[in-house]
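Here is one chain, start to finish.
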Amino acid sequence: LLNTMAQGMQAQGQQVTVEDLAPLSENDPQGSGISILGLPLAFGGMISGAVLTLLLKNKPWHKLVGSLAISFIGGLVAAAMMQYGYDLFPEGTSFWAITGVIALGIATTSLIVTGLAALMGMAGVGIGGITTIFFANPLSGLATGWWWLPAPWGTIGQFLPIGATGHLLRSELFFDGSGATQALWVLIGWALVGTALIAISALRPSFKKA
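Its structure:
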């Protein structure tokens, strides 16, 4: 937007300089690298939850470990493709920090979906999927930044996994992690909720016997 305004002012003969406070990568001048992460974050968590539910029936602790393992691998692959395959991140970006952020984002959705499915069956996968695709993803602000979304939807989106992951990623990429505290705790909170749901499903047979 600022570049477009500057071009219009220059066309009128004014001298205008635009300086990026947090420059994007030369290979990604529009910042589209962050916006495309919505797909792996949403579908990575959803699909892993569904697969673990189908393959590891009545094995809740295996599901928990599997969810974390798949999330780490997903974060590693996504970060490697974006940083080393397409060079979409700014110079000086920490590969392992970005891997951790993406992995945490995938794990949060995966644990929630897996936990819901452990208690409700495949209906839980459906609920988690619908919430993620039709609610969390549109409100995340990954493509534009949540500040541009109508109030209060942008703010609400930051308390959901995809929005929090996007904010945490932007903070790490462009501002050395500054302003990331809330997003980090939101993701940790959702991950703990998912873990608790899985734990409840594991303990439920014991409760029934008692």
